[in-house]
Amino acid sequence: MTHALSTREHLDSLPAVERVEELEGLVVDQFKRPLFLTGCDELDLSTSFFDLGLTSLRLMEIQRSLEAELELTLDTTALFNRPTIEELVLHLDALLGERA
């Protein structure tokens, strides 16, 4: 019987550079959904969440989704203190690195 790796286990098994790339893809996907963007649509990683058109409510939904996917708890201000995908990915990577 094989055990499928959770997203968290998969990320923990990757070298640091690859983990950041995987995290970026995961975070981008989470942000594209409420913006009604497809996989082909580009998303500027350095644009603030509010400039992308997201509301506080949508950010909280994204936060809960990321917490579930990554099996971690984010501070309630995490997305507000790191208001771009670029910054959020680095923060998440640091959190994952602490638990590794």
TrEMBL record:
<keyword id="KW-0597">Phosphoprotein</keyword>
<keyword id="KW-0596">Phosphopantetheine</keyword>
<protein>
    <submittedName>
        <fullName>Acyl carrier protein</fullName>
    </submittedName>
</protein>
<dbReference type="InterPro" id="IPR009081">
    <property type="entry name" value="PP-bd_ACP"/>
</dbReference>
<dbReference type="Pfam" id="PF00550">
    <property type="entry name" value="PP-binding"/>
</dbReference>
<dbReference type="InterPro" id="IPR020806">
    <property type="entry name" value="PKS_PP-bd"/>
</dbReference>
<feature type="domain" description="Carrier">
    <location>
        <begin position="18"/>
        <end position="96"/>
    </location>
</feature>
<dbReference type="InterPro" id="IPR036736">
    <property type="entry name" value="ACP-like_sf"/>
</dbReference>
